[in-house]
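Example 439, ligand pyridoxal-5'-phosphate.
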Amino acid sequence: MENFDRLVEGNPLLAQMREGKEVLWLNPGKTSFEESMIGCELGPKDVEDAEQRLLRFAPLIQKYFPETRRQHGLIESPLVEIGAMKKCINEKYEASLEGRLLLKEDSHLAIAGSVKARGGIYEVLKYTEDLAIKHGLLQPDESYDKLGETDIKHFFGQYAIQVGSTGNLGLSIGIISAVLGYHVIVHMSADARQWKKDLLRSYGVDVREYQGDYGEAVKRGRALSDADPNSYFVDDENSRNLFLGYSVAGKRLQKQLEEMQITIDEEHPLFVYIPCGVGGAPGGISFGLKQVFGDCVHCFFVEPVQAPCMLLGMATGLNSRICVQDIGLSGKTQADGLAVGRPSAFVGGIMKKMLSGEMTVEDSKLYDYMRDLLETEGIFLEPSACAAFQGPVSAGRVQMKQYLAENGLEAKRKQAVHVAWATGGSLVPEEIREEYKRA
Ligand SMILES: *Cc1c(COP(=O)(O)O)cnc(C)c1O
């Protein structure tokens, strides 16, 4: 094992992180959007391809999940203004946040109740389309709701889909795969919540539990899947498909902002704050937003103080060659989905020149923000999703002022639009919500 002590001692940021302190980091490697896309393995065509695929599947989604009918089978969440929460952030946390504060409610996405309904479901649909075409089940121009017919469901039943998960990814992959007819196995780490396992089992999902951590569940799942030629393993760390599923959020948000008559341009910058685990969801969403808004959007990730894996990889330049345990952090957090010790190398590579910065947040603050939002707006989010509020709360910090100055944004603060990306919560059962409220 390498010794990272020297690295930490020569670096004030890492020294603070090692002590579990909250930090705000600006990415010195950020370039113009144009430059960041040079040599990038993914591009606007890939995002467009993902959008089109989701449109093709919309009739099938609508058939299985009537709650998506109003959106014609698209899985999309509301974008709402949270003025009372903005007031609270300014008064209680002295944030001096200007401009508008919006909440992107992926917490309320259909089917999985979290941001994972974007990437996870997309990945299973992509696999399904490939399989159906390969076996001649779909003719060009045929409506995809045909894939819901009994004989085709039986055909899918010969195939297995497997995933390792701490919870939300398992919910999204598990539910969609089970409904489509697959044999689905979700490999859960010991810390996964009981209600998530119960919910999956109610869909007929094969849930396997492991004593070890998330890494152990992934390892076992992958080995089992690799041994079965009819099994597909969803790889949270390296999947381009998951990433592209998330990226579709870019154009969807653009449309919603237009409907709210909110302009984003050079004079009206957009700031987005997204909770980060392994990096796929915030990375994919940011990538999609960048394709639409280019240099006018400023993307920040938020991670728990004990599990800031993406920040560690980016700030040291070591990407996935370093993990939070290497600098003495536990990797443990109350925030479901964010307890990740090592970032995705693939996402780290793409974000290197696109990301504006990162904030870290203490677990106790997540519960404070959760109660604040409930009191001011009557909206419930799971604690991990509340990490997003560390973004707007940090508006008055010196590094943020530095960021505004360096990017010529000081005079535009009042016209800015801030989006806290709420990544999960609507499926959390009532008794667990009560538990969270008391925490
Ligand atoms: C998974 C998850 C995230 C982060 O997504 P990654 O792809 O792991 O970075 C954030 N919030 C919630 C609620 C999640 O479930």
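Summary: Residues 5 and 282 are 29 Å apart (CA to CA).
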